[in-house]
Amino acid sequence: MKAMMDQFRLDGRLALITGANKGIGLGIARAMAAAGADVILVARNRDELDAAAGELRQSGRRVAAAPFDLRQTAEIPAWYESLVPQHGCPDILVNAAGITRRAPAEELTLDDWNETITVNLTAVFVLCQAFARRLIAAGARGKIINIASLMTAATRRTTAAYTASKGGIGQLTKALAIDWADRGILVNAIAPGYIATRLTEPLRTDPEFDAWVKKRTPLGRWGTPEDIALPAVFLASAASDFVTGQVIFVDGGWLATF
């Protein structure tokens, strides 16, 4: 049994995680470090990133902070290539960074649309491409985990840009999984339900919305970053070596009912 459970370990692996300064991204970084991986943390906010890195170094893992603005998509390939000599070649990529811009569809500005699509979808593609090119050139295997959303399959008012971007993540995940299956690069996505993070705090402190989430979710609660982090460890590990092209909804049953 011990040998079987070892398949969930990430010892000797190197994970690059975007959006790793807080919320779901930081939760995944914590779990992967606990499972034995070394980690490269990516986010725009240097101070928050340094704080997260300082916390994770207490686990005894090798932790690097790599500040970068993923809106600069044209610069991603060169930036990624600059990381490898410093930190090694990642064999796990987690795309957890994301933004949202809310407005009724008829009022949404083109700038807000473009920024949301750029960060949530285009940057994910370009970073996946940089990650895969390195591994393919080396003949190495790897795992990609994209963070999707309930809005990969459903939507709410005023979320046109976000819904479009996360719908794209679902299909991009499948397309990359097929293109790279014979290269040993497995690509999956996790679609979180309503998760208790700093970002969702205004929603959780709204009594009406909080009550709606708990009533609408069959398990009767908000999720936590750890609820997403543990499936991410599974998808990054050898335990999931026959899983690719999947969008796994971790939503407390939200999509299963109405």
Element layout with pairings:
Elements: H1 2-5, E1 14-18, H2 23-34, E2 38-42, H3 46-57, E3 63-65, H4 76-87, E4 92-95, H5 110-138, E5 142-147, H6 160-180, E6 185-192, H7 201-204, H8 207-216, H9 225-236, E7 247-250
Parallel strand pairs: 1-2, 1-4, 2-3, 4-5, 5-6, 6-7
Helix pairs in contact: 2-9, 4-5, 5-6
How would you characterize this protein structure?
The chain has 258 residues and is an alpha/beta fold. The protein has a single domain (2-248), classed as NAD(P)-binding Rossmann-like Domain (Rossmann fold, 3-Layer(aba) Sandwich), CATH 3.40.50. The protein is 45% helix and 14% strand. It is built from nine helices and seven strands; from the N terminus they run αβαβαβαβαβαβαααβ. A seven-stranded parallel beta sheet has the order 3-2-1-4-5-6-7, with helices on both faces. Helix 4 (76-87) crosses helix 5 (110-138) and helix 5 (110-138) runs parallel beside helix 6. It is globular, with a radius of gyration of 18 Å. The model has no long low-confidence stretch (mean pLDDT 97).
